[in-house]
Design brief:
The chain is about 85% helix and about 0% strand. By secondary structure, it is mostly helical. It has one domain: MFS general substrate transporter like domains (Growth Hormone, Chain: A, Up-down Bundle), CATH 1.20.1250.
């Protein structure tokens, strides 16, 4: 059966589908502040809208992981195409909070469905090189964010509105929908190996899998919350906040493209440990520096988070293969759910910080609506200069904890390898 499978074409189509997912993140990150101004939305409302993508994602990726062996990866990707198309069109014609909420939810469901189908597809196509190929596949997540943020930056310069920027996503959506409709798919690796459904679900109770799920909360928040909110948090600290995201994700693209020698040299658990260390250092620089050092911080942070997501999935696929598609997709769903909760909480906390830095009794809504150059607008801008880095400094605690956790994982896996060698 595998002889008739066009592996390279399936991989290219998967990358295009993930490109649409990442474009939605990059473009939304770039226009989030604009949406707030146009529709008079505060940070908590913006946080809720952005978080909605992270609600739809875990819902789709977990359900998709449970049914992918039953209905097949091809049908899941047809659903992804439909949801992407509907979400993008509804975003273009959004009129306020609720239409943005619904459109972002649809895009989140589409994004999760793409991951639910494509992660097990990649591991099935490249069963001998899972972590490396997952890194190559997930290269298109930061790659799409780079493209998306550059689209926002360049289109803003030439005066094209945010609706045109969002409409750009329709192009790769149409292409991946067409390609997947024409290609044959393999069965998932778990089905090919003959592992029963009951064995798969029992494997989810493994202490190592539970540990990885908990760590996924932290790795996903560190990477995705920071990237999605960087324009809001640092807009008043630097004139080039969106370019900070571009630098960060550019480093991620290069890192994932060079994943093969890194993963083979250090092992997945070694990569995760170094990733946590660099992520913590990068967030420290972003929260404690200004000027050109912010770009250094973005590069260090990008190096730190570039391997997090695909290597977490690769570690589970390689060391806990009996968890199958459900295991991989539960990891992704857990990460996105954690980000959605954290994003909503930090949106409210950010508004609270701003309120504390404004005159007593001030209405944050009135200050947000103030005309540029007025005393109220200037006071709000000054409050944002310190509030944004404070949010980053709170988030810094997460990769610090992850450094300790992954150090323990590295030691555990090294000892387990020794035990296996001795037993042999």
């Amino acid at each position: 059966m595998l002889v008739s499978i066009q592996r390279n074409k399936l991989f290219i189509a998967s990358c295009l589908a993930l490109l649409v997912t990442s474009l939605s993140f990059g473009i939304r990150a770039g226009i989030l502040n604009t949406l707030g101004v146009q529709f008079n939305l505060n940070a908590e409302q913006l946080g809720t809208i952005a978080a909605t993508a992270f609600w739809g994602f875990p819902l789709a990726v977990i359900i998709g992981g449970m049914v992918v062996d039953i209905i097949g990866m091809k049908r899941l990707l047809v659903f992804a195409f439909i949801f992407h198309l509907a979400g993008i069109v509804l975003t273009i014609f959004a009129t306020g909070f609720w239409s943005l909420f619904l459109s972002t939810l649809l895009i989140g469901i589409a994004n999760g469905t793409v991951e639910a189908a494509c992660n097990p597809l990649v591991t099935s196509l490249y069963s001998d090189n899972k972590t490396t190929k997952l890194n190559h596949f997930h290269l298109w997540f930061p790659g799409g964010i780079v493209i998306g943020t550059l689209i926002v930056f360049l289109f803003n310069k030439i005066g094209l509105n945010w609706q045109v920027q969002v409409a750009v996503m329709l192009i790769p959506t149409a292409i991946y929908g067409y390609l997947f409709s024409k290609l044959d798919f393999p069965v998932t690796e778990r089905v090919a190996a003959g592992v029963s459904t009951s064995e798969m679900y029992k494997s989810l109770l493994s202490p190592l899998f539970v540990f990885m799920i908990i760590c996924m909360f932290g790795t996903a928040i560190t990477e995705l919350f920071t990237g999605q909110w960087i324009d809001v948090l640092l807009r008043n600290v630097t004139d080039n906040a969106i370019l900070i995201l571009t630098i960060e994700t550019g480093v991620m693209v290069l890192g994932r493209g060079l994943a093969e020698p890194v993963v083979h040299k250090l092992s997945p658990q070694g990569v995760l440990l170094l990733s946590a260390i660099f992520s913590a250092l990068g967030l420290y620089l972003l929260g404690h520096t200004t000027g050109s050092m912010l770009f250094v911080g973005a590069a260090v942070f990008g190096l730190g988070v570039c391997y997090f997501w695909p290597t977490m999935l690769g570690f589970v696929a390689e060391n806990l293969p009996r968890t199958g598609a459900v295991g991989i997709n539960l990891m992704g769903g857990a990460g996105m759910f954690a980000v959605s909760v954290y994003m909503m909480f930090m949106g409210g906390y950010y508004d609270k910080l701003l309120g504390q830095k404004l005159p007593a009794g001030a209405s944050l809504k009135e200050y947000n609506a103030a005309a540029p150059g007025t005393e109220m607008a200037n006071a709000l801008a000054q409050a944002k200069v310190t509030a944004g880095p404070e949010i980053i400094n709170v988030t810094l605690l997460i990769p610090v904890v992850l450094t300790v956790a992954f150090a323990g994982l590295y030691i555990y896996m090294r000892n387990r390898k020794k035990e296996i060698l001795l037993a042999a």
